[in-house]
Amino acid sequence: MNGCVGRFFRGVMTKYGVAVAIVAMALSGGARVGAQAQPPQERINAALARAQQVGIPVALLESKIAEGKAKGVSLERIAAAIERRQTTLERASQAHAHLLEQLAYQAGHDPLTRLANRRAGDAFLADAQHFPDVITNQAAKALARRDEQAGCDEQPRFHRRNDRA
After folding, report:
1. Do residues 117 and 108 lie in contact, with contact meaning Cβ atoms separated by under 8 Å?
2. pTM of the predicted protein model
3. Is CB count within 10 Å lower at the N or C end of the chain?
4. Vertex 126 angle, CA 145 and 134, to 5°
């Protein structure tokens, strides 16, 4: 935000409060001063590059650009529309990824106890068949950690009990 606009909003904020300053900033478009300082074509290119980085199909944004140019809309309005669409698609992509993670977790866990269910156990056993060294190594490390936390010495508990008999 440039100095004059920033001073104005700081003055409004101190005199009337944060809520009024936010409303004034939104109505005046002051919140977008930094983004609009770039030429519209650079803003469009930046939105396309960001979409490609995030994994959003660029064709969805390019169709909006072509539609705007065909209708004779100014590049400034096209850039604003592209930025809004890019933000919306990015949020939708994040929500989709979150829902997939949540669904995968729910598929393998009981909703009440949150313990792994049979499907998760079957998947673990299937992995154990394909990667026995990795699974065995992980299980051995987990058992060793458990024994270490319990304060056991080097010898497993089974052998200690049977050695006394």
Report:
1. yes
2. 0.51
3. C
4. 40
